[in-house]
Amino acid sequence: MFLGLEREWSQKTAGIRTFSLVALLGALFTILSTETELGTGLLVIGALLVIVQGIVLATKGLLEEDETLGLTTSVSMLVTYGVGVVVATGYLIEGVVVAVLSSLLLVLKRELHSIAWGLSRRELRSVTEFAILAFVVFPLLPGRRVPVASLGVSVNPQEVWAMVVTVAGIGIVNYVVVQNYGGRGIAVTGFFGGLASSTAVVGTMLDHVRQDADAASYAVAAILLADAAMALRNLTIAVAFTLPDGLLTGVVAPLGAVAVLGVGIAAANADWSTEVEIGLESPFSMRNALAFGGVFLMVVVVGAVAKAQFGDVGFILTAAITGLVSSAGATTSAVVLYPESLGSDAAVYAILASTATSIAVKSGLTVMGSDSQFTRSVAIWSGSLIVGAVVVTGLVTLLVT
To answer: Residue 190 contacts by C-beta under 8 Å, 6 or more apart in sequence?
Structure first.
């Protein structure tokens, strides 16, 4: 009935009654095939009848140019028949899920068509590459821990790739948000743009300040929002991937403080309704994914050597340096090495160090601009984020102990 309801609402020839009868036909044939000697042949005959009927309707629609008769309606009828069979077999929940999801696909026709037609060739290629890495490469990787050379460090390739896919997925989602809603204000542009590419946010803001000195206030806000988004992303990675092995609670207070303070300071310093366009590159590319994987591998290898020579301090220093390029890469490395090769304290400090250096490097990039006041403002407020995180962490520590 769900499928028929949507078809009826869309004013198609086959509507709620037709689809309900097709589902009942599937259920009836299933019962007869299991309770009598007719066997599965009856189910096949029923399916063939639905297919033939669908072909006839679709052909008639093409010949008569009747929009109420189409291939989608024909396929929907076959799905409805299958739902009836599944439900009669005893898989009630599965049948309902298929029916509801199928109805949703039909209802979202305009939105899905709009998305498909609005994709550029580069964006479509990006989505395809992401799907290959997420659904083809991931299952082929070993699901056990594998030693990295002779460094005394082991990693789970599937776990590592899951993080690469997660970070890439976050970038794609935020690319879509910025592309569709970026014109709605600095909050969307700065925060979601920062998740997709914080460097792009800084570069865009520098251009705006060069063209208009009055843009400094919302430019500072955008960079602070990018910092907040980056901290929230690192916090999400650290929490989501360490739950099974013992949550890294030490990152919650400082990273949460950076996120909250970043949003709060940005709100106080700029008009959030200010519209800013930000130019983002393709949402995903094989090169970017491999580059992220390379950063991760570098941190693991160099960090392992540094840890062997200088203890935990060596790995933390490596993570801090990596944060100049990719705090996500450093965070991912710390999470993957925890708890087998890295203690909780070292993992927490590594994540926080990479986050701090990432905030600092965004501030440093503003030196490339010509507005010294803008550079000072970014430096002061960025420093405030780090100091605020330290203060909040200290207060939380005192309260807990």
So the answer is: 201, 221, 222, 223, 224, 225, 226, 229, 266, 276
- pLDDT value of residue 338: 85
Q: What is the dihedral of CA 195, 198, 204, 210, to 10 degrees?
A: 140
Token pair 């009935």 in the structure block, residue: 1
Q: What is the C-alpha separation between 254 and 387, in angstroms, rounded?
A: 10
| Amino acid in position 316 | I
Amino acid at 221: A
Contact 187, 194 (CB under 8 A): no
Residues 6 or more apart whose Cβ sits within 8 Å of residue 4: 14, 15, 16, 17, 18, 19, 20, 80
Amino acid, single-letter form, for residue 345: D
Q: Which two tokens stand for residue 250?
A: 């030490």
pLDDT in tens, 1-14: 545 555 555 555 55
Query: Are 26 and 84 contacting, i.e. CB atoms less than 8 angstroms apart?
Result: yes
Q: What is the DSSP letter of 151?
A: S
Peptide bond into 339 cis (omega under 30): yes
DSSP 3-state of 270: coil
Contacts 24+ apart (CB under 8 A), 5-12: 5/103, 6/103, 6/106, 6/107, 7/73, 7/76, 7/106, 10/106, 10/109, 11/68, 12/68, 12/69, 12/70, 12/73
Task: Of 9-18, 37-46, 142-151, 213-222, give the range with the top mean pLDDT.
Answer: 213-222
- Strands (E) across 127-230 are located at 146-147, 154-155
CA–CA gap between residue 122 and residue 280 (Å, rounded):
12
Residue 258 to residues 124, 252, 381: CA-CA distances in angstroms? 35, 10, 11
* Residue 244 in tokens: 């099974």
Residue 216: CA count within 13 A, CB half-sphere: 16
The first and second tokens of residue 159, run together, are 């776990």
pLDDT greater than 70 at residue 279? no
Closest CA to 81 of 28, 128, 15, 131: 28
Alpha-carbon torsion, ordered 326, 331, 336, 341, to 10 deg:
110
> Which ranges of 311-343 does DSSP label H, i.e. alpha helix?
312-322, 327-337
Tokens for 385, please give them.
């984020």
